[in-house]
Amino acid sequence: MSKRITPFASRYCSTLDRLKEAIRRKRPGLLRRGVVLQHDNATPHSANLTQQWLQRYGWEILPHPAHSPDLAPSDFHLFGPLKRHLGGMAFETEDDLISELRNWFDNLDVDFFRVGINSLLSR
Q1: Prediction pTM value
Q2: Interval 17-41: pLDDT, tens
Q3: How many CA atoms lie within 13 Å of 1's alpha carbon, on the beta-carbon side?
Q4: 33: how many CB neighbours lie within 10 A of its CB?
Q5: From CA 49, how far away is CA 8, in angstroms rounded?
Q6: CB under 8 Å to 34, separation ≥6 — which residues?
Q7: 45 to each of 83, 89, 107, how far by Cα in Å?
Q8: Quick one: which H or E segment has residue 80?
Q9: Strands (E), the chain
Q10: How far apart are the first and last CA of the chain?
């Protein structure tokens, strides 16, 4: 199957360029260890231009099943509250971040995930 070409692919690659620059500034070690990216199967993400960009920089893509909006990270109940919790924090080491994440998960309300799962019914 041939890869699609789309005018939106160049815009997406520009977004990836900005992301790469932000990672270089904020987490330079991450670029050396390798970036793992998850995006869906939208046309700009699977276009030849995008695939070439990803190969050039050696970024790994986590697979995302087609037609699985319930698995899209942006729709998942967890990420909004987690982003708000971590907003403004800075960590000296990856272990500090992991420790904060464990603390956050340990202190979640017992109904947190039940509410998130039930909210999928309304989507």
Answers
A1: 0.51
A2: 999 999 999 887 888 888 888 887 7
A3: 4
A4: 8
A5: 10
A6: 58, 59, 60
A7: 24, 30, 36
A8: helix 79-86
A9: 36-37, 60-61
A10: 32
